[in-house]
From TrEMBL:
Residues 1-22 form the signal peptide. GO terms for molecular function: transmembrane transporter activity. Gene3D superfamilies: 2.40.30.170, 2.40.420.20, 2.40.50.100, Helix hairpin bin (1.10.287.470). InterPro entries: Beta-barrel_RND_2, MdtA-like_BSH, RND_pump_MFP, UPF0194_transport, YknX-like_C. This is Uncharacterized protein. Residues 289-362 form the CusB-like beta-barrel domain.
């Protein structure tokens, strides 16, 4: 190669002047004949690295909350403390919760005993007591009936008196307005008393029916529906007991993950509210680097790609990272796409907030860049002319515009990094034309 060779250097392509091409032909399928011509050659190289800057964030940050409300009895950790999953962070007062558990337990015990009695059937003493209750209810019903009859007589008398006074008041002046009002009051009083005795009589009848039903139930034993209803009551009270125990257990707030306490928002004696954050715990054995990449680079970054992470404040040695998230959606009002890289931090050298540089070689599917002048158009197809063992070889390509001067071509079996292509092929260049370096 002589001193007239040139160097081409776009972003993803390095170009080197390789030599000269001579010979031409109008037929791409035959060797060239006739006058020779010189052509500049350029050498293709693999794409350069992509470098992205971002900040380190914890792999996991958990807001520790209390599931229930209550007064804080003790706080067991300070900010900066290393905790393990299950460690007790906060203990709420439990006196009221313990009482609720005891009450719920008593309800379950009573319901279970009632169910056992129903399943065993009524005893003779219970039958006798129910018969006595039925007799008492019937006696009360008879008394209520007598009271209804007495109140009915009183109402009839008050009605007759009111009607007489009303007629006299309307037809003559022998009855005053005061006498009429008094008669009206007595009538309303009698009517109310009658209605009350009717209601009492009806209630007494219901008591008789209830006492009769209980006696018949005791004599015949519990029905399937009764047993099912009692079993359901046992289940309901058992669920209430579980809920009370759960509330008691929730009074002990534990660490949900291994990590470091970075913020504490509660003190002993304060009231903890359900759902309010008490602590922030971060998990730092792995960290993530959040970066953003432009839309013209996003296709080169794939999930699972191994990258280098350089953190100047953590030393000169780069860290190994893996791309774990590539957002398919750009950040609103921008053309940048969020990307996350996960980095092992078992040694604890990386801290949240550090600035990091992520370096990646890009996509596994490399695109090469060539000048538009290197693309030859024939028969509606696009070709680049390769230097293959000193002879010209036409390789069909599909192009994608990069800018006004350059296009992308996909790397293939014929077109690879390191090959030389003709920079400015003319329409006469043919397959098999001999190349001769100047």
């Amino acid at each position: 190669m002589n001193r007239n060779h040139k160097l081409w250097a776009p972003a993803l392509l390095s170009l080197a002047l390789a030599g000269a091409l001579q010979g031409c032909s109008t037929d791409p399928g035959h060797a060239a004949a006739g006058a020779k011509a010189s052509y500049q050659l350029m050498q293709l190289a693999q794409g350069s690295q992509v470098s992205l800057s971002g900040k380190i964030i914890p792999d996991q940050e958990v807001k520790v909350v209390s599931k229930g409300s209550g007064k804080v009895a003790a706080v067991n950790v300070e900010e900066g403390a290393a905790v393990h999953k299950g460690d007790v962070l906060v203990q709420l007062e439990t006196d009221d919760l313990l009482q609720q558990v005891r009450q719920a337990q008593s309800g379950v015990t009573g319901a279970q005993a009632k169910l056992a009695d129903l399943q065993a059937g009524a005893r003779p003493q219970e039958i006798a007591a129910l018969e006595s209750a039925l007799a008492a209810a019937k006696a009360a019903q008879e008394q209520a009936g007598a009271a209804v009859q007495q109140a009915k007589a009183g109402l009839d008398l008050a009605t007759s008196s009111y009607n007489r006074l009303r007629n006299l008041y309307d037809s003559s002046s022998s009855v005053s307005k005061e006498d009429l009002d008094k008669g009206t009051f007595e009538y309303e009083k009698a009517r109310t008393a009658y209605e009350q005795t009717q209601a009492a009589h009806k209630a007494a009848g219901a008591q008789v029916e209830a006492a009769q039903a209980k006696l018949e139930l005791a004599r015949s034993g519990a029905t399937d529906n009764t047993l099912k209803a009692t079993e359901a009551e046992v289940n309901r009270l058992s669920a209430a007991l579980e809920l009370a125990n759960s509330s008691l257990n929730n009074a002990t707030v534990t660490a949900p993950v291994d990590g470091i306490v970075v913020k504490r928002s509660i003190q002993p004696g304060e009231m903890a509210q359900a759902g309010a954050a008490l602590f922030s715990v971060v998990k730092m054995d792995r960290v993530q680097v959040e970066v953003s990449t432009a839309d013209n680079q996003i296709a080169k970054i794939k999930t699972g790609t191994e990258v280098q992470v350089k953190v100047p404040t953590a030393g000169d040695q780069p860290f190994k990272g893996t791309v774990t998230f590539v957002s398919p959606v750009a950040t609103p009002n921008t053309s940048s796409f969020p990307v996350k890289v996960t980095v092992d931090n078992q040694e604890g050298k990386l801290f949240a907030g550090m600035v990091a540089e992520v370096v990646t070689a890009g996509s596994t599917e490399q695109k090469l860049e060539v000048p538009k002048s290197a693309v030859l158009q024939r028969d509606g197809k696009s070709y680049v002319v390769l230097s293959d063992n000193g002879k010209a070889k036409l390789a069909e390509v599909k192009t994608e515009d990069k800018n006004a001067e350059w296009v992308y071509v996909q790397e293939s079996g014929e077109l690879k990094a390191g090959q030389s292509i003709v920079v400015n092929p003319d329409a006469a260049i043919a397959e098999g034309t001999a190349l001769k370096a100047e």
